[in-house]
Design goal:
There is one protein chain. This protein has 519 residues and is of the alpha/beta class. Helices cover 33% and strands 16% of the residues. It has 15 helices and 19 strands. The chain has a seven-stranded mixed β-sheet with strand order 11-10-7-6-5-1-12. A five-stranded mixed β-sheet has the order 15-14-13-18-19. The two termini are 39 Å apart. The structure holds FE(8)-S(7) cluster and iron/sulfur cluster (SF4).
């Protein structure tokens, strides 16, 4: 495998090689992007054997389209699309807000050239970064020139990186052919309604056909354009994920109808996300005090929608400039100033070697899970429990309780262990001391769990968790997550059977809004 050595200054820094030269040099390196046509009908929990080979090629290292992949592979967003052509009542786009983490918020807006430079810098530093997404802070297709220029520069320079975009869908039908031509294999459409009367409560206006349109008419046009765009993409083999924001009191039950509508039009995956709403965001919903759903409400809706098309449950509601694994944020390492100073080595061979290593690790994880499942073969109990996992990634229980920014939540039963969500928390331990917020918010976030499996935990939090009925378990430190969750469940059933413990139905839990930020 040929190794390309490139420096960031090759990307237009003073006195550097031109971007064109860099593109040519990368194009000669012999790698190619993945291709093939997608088929709908499966989802993020699917494994290699569950999907046609061409679809598996597209999703196997996409952290959003494959729940398994999200333990190993990272995505990055570049904020090249500031404008938007509609208004959502849950949106207020902000810049330079490093403490706020939600879609629509970024620290820097980038030109396509700056964005391409940043992608190469990240790809060089983080070999597991496999996907470039354009997701805002406005709508990528309301900024088509910048969005497609960015994709063009990146695909010519780093063709092993998958291209992904996320849109409100209003202008999507106008851009489908270009999306296909650019080999953008993954498109997300945010569809919150198919009933314009409901839409009128979510969208005060759209800008379409050179005019501002309000009320039910606006939502009618938006919905028609979204569904048309979805049909056009799936007919051309593009994998389409539909994002829907669950807004209690407005579209919560209606999303079941949305699910049916998008499923019938070939969507690959449906991602129902909780409303992010707080007065300080300055959004209409935030200012009117509209709440987001609880953990149980969200899960119940996702369960109701789950059928042939699986639900995405591992979304972290990323910022439009997010970098890293879905549960981490490394964007501060890649500001424009830092990127300009970095000497980078775009090493395709190293990236591919990393991915081969991940393949082997995934096989080992799947094998271990299968072996553990065999131990449940004779179990008939109808008990289901939820367990929280402290992990830094890699599919392993490798995080100290006090250092966890989030816990991954698995539902475990005789059917196996299934990822059902994550809970963000403030660090329990800061600089060796318990944080000011204490353990209460963590207890509320994990209240629906019977246990938390950790690499390590101190006596004090362990006792607090026990007091709340949550068992802290270090037995599975550095073991695989799903294998361990099943092993814990087996042990749990044994202890219930021997009346050493009682199985109790746990209560609801808090979902903390937004995604992880470093500061
Ligand atoms: Fe980005 Fe979106 Fe592509 Fe993923 S995010 S454009 S599909 S690469 Fe992923 Fe982030 Fe959720 Fe989006 S976790 S907000 S679903
Ligand atoms: Fe904000 Fe996206 Fe809605 Fe535009 S489409 S208003 S950027 S949430």
């Amino acid at each position: 495998m040929q190794k390309k050595l490139l420096t960031l200054h090759d990307f237009g820094a003073p006195g550097a090689t031109s971007f064109d030269e860099l593109r040519r040099s990368a194009a000669q390196s012999g790698c190619s992007s993945t291709g093939g046509s997608g088929k709908s009908g499966c989802g993020s929990a699917a494994s290699q054997g569950d999907l046609p080979p061409d679809v598996w090629e597209k999703v196997k290292n996409h952290p959003c389209y494959s729940e398994q992949a999200h333990h190993h592979f990272a995505r990055m967003h570049v904020a090249v699309a500031p404008a938007c052509n509609i208004q959502c009542n849950y949106c207020n786009r902000k810049y330079d807000c490093a403490n706020e983490s939600r879609p629509g918020v970024v620290s820097e807006k980038l030109s396509p050239e700056q964005a391409a430079r940043k992608v190469i810098a990240v790809a060089s530093t983080i070999p597991q970064m496999t996907v470039l997404g354009v997701a805002g802070p406005g709508d990528p297709l309301a900024n088509p020139a910048k969005t497609f220029k960015t994709f063009e520069l990146v695909s010519e320079t780093a063709p092993d990186i998958k291209l992904c975009l996320s849109t409100n869908g209003l202008t999507l039908p106008d851009h489908v052919e270009r999306i296909v031509a650019m080999k953008v294999d993954h498109v997300t459409i945010t569809i919150n309604m198919i009933d314009p009367e409901i839409g009128a409560q979510i969208y005060p206006w759209i800008f379409y056909d050179h005019r501002r349109i309000t009320g039910v008419e606006a939502s009618k046009i938006l919905s028609e354009r979204q569904l048309l765009g979805l049909e056009m993409l799936t007919a051309r083999g593009i994998l389409v994920k539909v994002n829907s924001v669950m807004i209690p009191g407005i579209n919560d039950r209606h999303l079941i109808e949305v699910n049916k509508a998008v499923k019938s039009r070939g969507a690959f995956l449906h991602n129902i996300m909780p409303l992010i709403s707080a007065p300080e965001h300055g959004t209409v919903f935030g200012l009117e005090g509209r709440r987001g759903p609880s953990a149980q409400e969200l899960k119940a809706l996702q369960d109701d929608c789950e059928g042939e098309m699986n639900m995405m449950r591992h979304c972290r509601q990323c910022r439009a400039d997010a970098v890293g694994l879905l549960g981490e944020d490394r964007s501060a390492e890649f500001t424009t100033n830092k990127v300009m100073e970095m000497e980078v080595t775009y090493d395709l061979a190293a990236r591919q070697a990393y991915q081969a290593k991940v393949e082997a690790e995934r096989d080992a994880i799947a094998g271990a899970k299968q072996r553990e499942m065999a131990t449940l073969a004779d179990e008939t109990a109808s008990i289901k429990i939820q367990v929280a996992i402290a992990t830094k990634g890699g599919g392993v229980i490798n995080e100290h309780f006090g250092h966890a920014h989030e816990f991954q939540i698995y539902e475990v039963s005789t059917a196996g262990a299934k990822f059902i969500g994550h809970r963000r928390v403030d660090l329990y331990c800061e600089g060796g001391y318990a944080s000011d917020t204490g353990i209460e918010p963590i207890l509320k976030a994990l209240n629906d769990c019977a246990a938390v499996l950790v690499a390590k935990i101190g006596l004090c939090p362990k006792e607090s968790l026990a007091g709340a009925g949550i068992e802290a378990v270090e037995t599975y430190a550095f073991d695989y997550i799903e294998q361990s969750a099943i092993a814990y469940f087996k042990d749990y059933l044994d202890r219930v059977g021997k009346s050493e413990i009682s199985h109790v139905q746990r209560g609801d839990a808090d979902i903390r809004q937004g995604a992880f930020v470093t500061s």
